[in-house]
Design goal:
By secondary structure, the chain is of the alpha+beta class. The chain is built from 1 helix and 8 strands.
Length: 147
């Protein structure tokens, strides 16, 4: 059968219809996936809000400390140096740890926040003080020269 100018064959119409139907199906699948992701996001947000509401006020987890000593920046080698901090925690007991970049950990993670030490290696120490309680870890640093 010959087609006149401007006429479309049945086969061409079937192919066009199939392409249109495929596009509609693809669009439908895509939109359902987007809606599903949006629903999951809303569910996740609801769960996060619920969890946040169940936690205590964050102020209850405060941890801080002041460095009481050493109160000098330089000591003669062999001097008995007092290391003392005053921790403040709303969560019970704390563990204090003092670590020198030269001499290493010189408290071995005991709960002692007040002790004396006289055998630090000579040099310019950066000492990191770590205090931890049940929920939080807080660190501060000091510089100390041993001549």
């Amino acid at each position: 059968m010959l087609l006149k100018k401007g006429q479309i064959s049945v086969e061409v119409l079937i192919i066009i219809s199939a392409l249109i139907l495929s596009g509609i199906i693809f669009t439908s699948i895509f939109l359902s996936q987007v809606q599903s992701k949006n629903k999951n996001t809303e569910t996740t947000n609801d769960k996060m809000n619920e969890l946040n509401n169940n936690y205590k006020d964050l102020d209850e987890f405060d941890l801080d400390f002041t460095i009481d000593s050493p109160n000098q920046s330089s000591y003669i080698n062999g001097t008995n140096i007092n290391f003392k901090i005053t921790p403040v925690s709303n969560n019970g007991s704390v563990i204090c740890k003092w670590v020198s970049d030269i001499s290493g950990d010189f408290t071995l993670a005991t709960s002692s926040c007040n002790f004396n030490k006289s055998n630090l290696n000579a040099g310019n120490h950066i000492i990191t003080i770590e205090v931890r309680d049940k929920y939080t870890i807080k660190t501060k640093q000091i510089s100390l020269r041993i001549n």
